[in-house]
Amino acid sequence: MSVPGKIADAKRQVRQPFYRDLSLQVLAGMALGIATGYLFPKFGIDLQPVGDAFIRVIQMLIGPIIFCTVCSGIAGVNDFKRVGRVAIKALVYFEVVTSFALVIGLVAINVLKPGVGMNVDMHGAHSSAVDAYVAQAHHVVTTSEFLLNVIPHTAFSAFASGNVLQVLFFSVLFAFGLAAIGERAKPALDLIDAASGSLFWIIGLTMKVAPLAAFGAIAYTVSKFGFGTLISLGKLVLEFYLTCALFLVMILWPIAKINGFSLLRLMRYIGAELLLVIGTSSSETVFPQLIDKLERLGCEKSVVGLVLPTAYTFNHDGTCLYFAAAAIFLAQATNTPMNWHDQLVLLAVLLLTSKGAAGVSGAAIAVLAATLAASNTIPVESIALILGIHKALSSAFVFTNIVGNSVATIVVANWEKALDRTVLRRELEAGFVPHEPALPRLERMSGGRAGH
């Protein structure tokens, strides 16, 4: 048996006690956080830095990880045509699926009508809480500004600002440059691979405190907003959770089945990441882990390195569901008349403005404000109605985004014949088994990259 084969067998034999499972630890942290926030609200408020610190550490590493992954993947392939083909397929897939998300969001909110009967009068209303979002909306309204913002002012400013799209743009150009100079790029690629290994080691270390981060984030949320706000606007929360579930069943489940894998098993495989984004309401906290898991599922490194960062920028399935649901809910709550023609116009605006969220941390509310301003029908000030439950809604749409991005990466890899289906089936059937600390190092020394 080869060394990589022995390593694979060793991984299969690693079965940790249930209490060391990260998914269960995160779930326990969230449960404890809910109880703490409810019983000790003042202490729960003080726990905000715990969740924020974890998110900052992950955000600190995302730019370098995207750079290392994209450069290693593209330069390793050394095929410019293939890179362009993968990018085009991914973008077409993203646009089609997000369009389905918008349609499902519009239909569900019109059928369930959670805002009808609220009769909120926004005439003369003003909320200082909305001002910041309205101001931020001006930065994501125009398509030309968005396209220009893809290009960073300097190579370092993209990493300094944490703008995912700018980092991706620079990384792709740099990778093409490495591929163009051939063998002379080998020392640089070796350095990039070594840097990538050290970054993922830091991620592995950071994930050990993920349950504590989930505890702090949930405790703060419950303490800050309480259960009263959720109950008063519970119809919208329930409607939106149902809409996300419908999207998973009606769109992502058939896509997964057509491409030969189980959506439920995939969700189980990335279960720890899904629980973590529910607790933190941030998709960035699981980006590095998704890269590792998708490669372990048999997707080629080059495809993962290009598709997943692009998906984080353009494939906002859950966020599009949120935009559609929230916009029509506010129209219903404020008795703003909107026929199907008006809603289709709103859908067209959403297709453009939803891309404005790329690279803007926590921009969902700002982009919603931009959409309402562009449609010029629903009062922008009405956003104040949903600020209190935005956390509850964001947990659902970030969860949906992560599932959608994982499915998209596997699908594009399958289309490109860059997916080892044997590895995919074996991994999904067995479930995720964490590496022992020594195994990744041994694997790198052996040069084994099973399934890639």
From TrEMBL:
Any one annotated GO CC term: plasma membrane
Keyword Cell membrane part of the UniProt annotation: yes
Function: Responsible for the transport of dicarboxylates such as succinate, fumarate, and malate from the periplasm across the membrane.
Localization: Cell membrane
The protein, known as: C4-dicarboxylate transporter DctA
PROSITE patterns in the cross-refs: NA_DICARBOXYL_SYMP_1
Lipid bilayer topology: Multi-pass membrane protein
This protein's record includes keyword Transport: yes
Transmembrane segments: 21-41, 53-78, 90-112, 155-178, 199-220, 240-258, 344-372, 392-415
Annotated GO MF terms: fumarate transmembrane transporter activity; malate:proton symporter activity; succinate transmembrane transporter activity
Native organism: Trinickia dinghuensis
Keyword set, alphabetical order: Cell membrane, Membrane, Symport, Transmembrane, Transmembrane helix, Transport
GO biological process: L-aspartate transmembrane transport
InterPro entries: Na-dicarboxylate_symporter, Na-dicarboxylate_symporter_CS, Na:dicarbo_symporter_sf
